[in-house]
Design goal:
HAD_sf; Putative hydrolase of the HAD superfamily; 9 helices; 227 residues; six-stranded parallel sheet; hydrolase; Rossmann fold; phosphoglycolate phosphatase activity; HAD-SF_hydro_IA
């Protein structure tokens, strides 16, 4: 595994970027799913903590990698709660990963196309954009829900090509989702990079077969870190 991931900027036109765990700290999402949602579900439904966890965790395991996993409407319907309202309760925890904003700004100055490709539901996407101003640093934003396929599936990349054409061999994908990286690589995306520490409150991840990015300052298309 390498934690230093140089990008050949001379051969790169488009940078495809994940949101949660890549540009934004995954701490918010992990805390929401592992702690906040089960706790609030127990309170709202007057359930024992263990029963509330059993309503959430087995479903999460079964749906991993499927579009339903990321679908706020699905979870609101299945759990009979307002998922977006619950996310808003801890929205103050939504934040950038180190140097992510500076990286996007540097890409803009270098005339590289910056495309957000996220599995996040559009309502969650809007919440995080409102909290961070993320959209001001991007050239396009694509939710998997717009394409009706998650990034883990090959069909996502085919549909993305129709929706927002790009040259795979001259593109980079940066994503903390290892299955999404593998799918993109199979499609022909020239460079795929993972994230060493997607959650600032958790230990670094291990992925022997994937190049992991320690910090965006390692791959700035200019020599200086600007913020």
């Amino acid at each position: 595994m390498s934690t230093c991931a140089p990008i050949d900027w001379q051969r790169t036109d488009t940078v495809l970027l994940d949101m949660d765990g890549t540009l934004l700290d995954l701490r918010f999402d992990n805390l929401f799913w592992k702690q906040h949602l089960p706790r609030r579900l127990a309170e709202l439904k007057n359930l024992p903590a263990g029963e509330a966890e059993q309503a959430v965790f087995p479903r999460m395991a079964r749906l991993q990698g499927r579009i339903e996993w990321y679908c706020l409407d699905y979870w609101s319907r299945e759990l009979e709660v307002d998922m977006l309202a619950l996310k808003r309760e801890i929205a103050h925890l939504i934040g950038w990963r180190p140097h992510a904003r500076a990286f996007l700004e540097a890409l803009g100055r270098a005339d590289k196309r910056r495309v957000l490709v996220t599995n996040a539901h559009p309502d969650v996407l809007r919440l995080k954009v409102a909290q961070t101003g993320l959209d001001a640093h991007l050239d396009a934003i694509i939710s998997a829900h717009d394409l009706q396929r998650p990034k883990e599936e090959q069909d996502f990349w085919h549909r993305l090509q129709q929706h927002a054409p790009f040259r795979p061999e001259r593109s980079v994908l940066i994503d903390d989702n290892l299955a999404a990286l593998a799918s993109a690589q199979s499609y022909g995306v020239g460079t795929v990079l993972g994230i060493r520490r997607p959650d600032s409150s958790a230990n670094p991840v291990a992925a022997p077969d994937v190049t992991l990015l320690e910090c965006f300052s390692d791959v700035l298309p200019t020599a200086q870190v600007t913020g």
